[in-house]
Amino acid sequence: MSGAANPRLFDRMSWAEARRVADILRLETVGGALLLAGAALAMAWANSPWAAAYEAVRSFRIGPRALHLELDLATWAADGLLAIFFFVAGLELKREFVAGDLREVRRAAVPVATALGGVAVPAILYLLVTSGAGGGAARGWAIPTATDIAFALAVLAVIGRHLPAALRTFLLTLAVVDDLLAIVIIAVFYTTHLSVLPLLAALVPLAIFAVLVRYRVRAWWLLLPLAAATWTLVHASGVHATVAGVLLASTVPVLHRRRTGGPGTGPGLAEHFEHRFRPISAAVAVPVFALLTAGVTLGGLDGLATALSDPVSAGILVGLVLGKPIGIVAATWLVARFTRATLGEGLAWVDVAGIAILSGIGFTVSLLIGELAFGTGGDRATHVKVAILAGSLTAALLAAVVLRLRDRAYRRIHAAETADENRDDVPDVYE
């Protein structure tokens, strides 16, 4: 079989899909900048003379006590605001596999396989590093398995402006599938107690929500109470409340079959909800979560050294910095090996390695899983946060070195493609 007949990895997507992804990347990049600002503010605040005020804000309790929802602000951020984040991730994932380029098995195989590799290898390395550590260290095996898409895209926007769009899309899709795996892990492995009755009761508002969106009902005064009821009941069941976001997203139709005006389909409400809620997720939910979660008192260089000497910290660092890129590159190579696929035109394996290293930024979901595994108080919880911050920063710096070098090589290509546009703003390569 000739190389020309072989499928390509990270091949150019359709023009419509490319424009949609470009809009998403712009929003997530801005969200990433706000996320970094929130995390930096949290660290500065927690290590300032006003550290007690930071803890007071985090622990301030609010909510209806009758519904057992009088929670502190840090918990509201993790359980409530991140439900919005996972709702948007669920919409994106469903759209990709129903109407996006990933509806084709050939295109979907790579991000799915790489996401699996990027989860399995960090978890294995973490368990190897922490074996014999005791103290429930194994509970943190999932911490280094996540990729923070907003943080990663913010870094990529600074260091890789001329990289091929296919690589950016690959990172986005990889992170979306990664989020799905993360929510499955959270639901299955970090549910400490399960109350079946509230979980079954959650199906009632969820089903009503599904029927309404099926018939394109957009009235917020109908949908929001149903979504809140679903979230409340899932929270009461013992399953992490962010699962409610994914469940709600799974009911929203991506395509709407026209009943009048002839055959065919039109866009469903998924696109409408994504446009409405992605800015809220990127600009509010995730940055506020970072502000209320990332703050940790380092205690100087000695405190930093103590935190990083914990076997759990070492496992997180190894998982993020080594496990993620090894798992992603190995899975991609295996897909290429067994499908006889070749890289897209002009791409090299060093590009894949750079994106894989960048995927070691595991900030938001890693912090969430860290809290579920080790709680929010105590030395180990502090060590986990320090390790996540250190691992994500290390991954960002290493990726910056690799991708910055590759970015220079793509400058001429980018200039040529920009110049080769028609009056309708559609590049010739998409026609």
Automatic annotation (TrEMBL):
Domain of life: Bacteria
Main subcellular localisation: membrane
Localization in the cell: Cell inner membrane; Cell membrane
Residues spanning the membrane: 29-53, 73-93, 105-129, 141-159, 171-190, 196-215, 280-301, 313-336, 348-374, 386-405
Topology in the lipid bilayer: Multi-pass membrane protein
InterPro entries in alphabetical order: Na/H_antiporter_dom_sf (IPR023171), NhaA (IPR004670)
This protein's record includes keyword Transmembrane: yes
Keyword NADP: no
Catalytic activity: Na(+)(in) + 2 H(+)(out) = Na(+)(out) + 2 H(+)(in)
Protein keywords: Antiport, Cell membrane, Ion transport, Membrane, Sodium, Sodium transport, Transmembrane, Transmembrane helix, Transport
Any matching Pfam family: Na_H_antiport_1
Protein family: Belongs to the NhaA Na(+)/H(+) (TC 2.A.33) antiporter family.
PANTHER family reported for this sequence: NA(+)_H(+) ANTIPORTER NHAA, SODIUM ION/PROTON ANTIPORTER NHAA-RELATED
Protein's job: Na(+)/H(+) antiporter that extrudes sodium in exchange for external protons.
The name this protein goes by in its record: Na(+)/H(+) antiporter NhaA
The species this protein was found in: Sphaerisporangium aureirubrum
Organism phylogeny: Bacteria, Bacillati, Actinomycetota, Actinomycetes, Streptosporangiales
This protein's encoding gene: nhaA
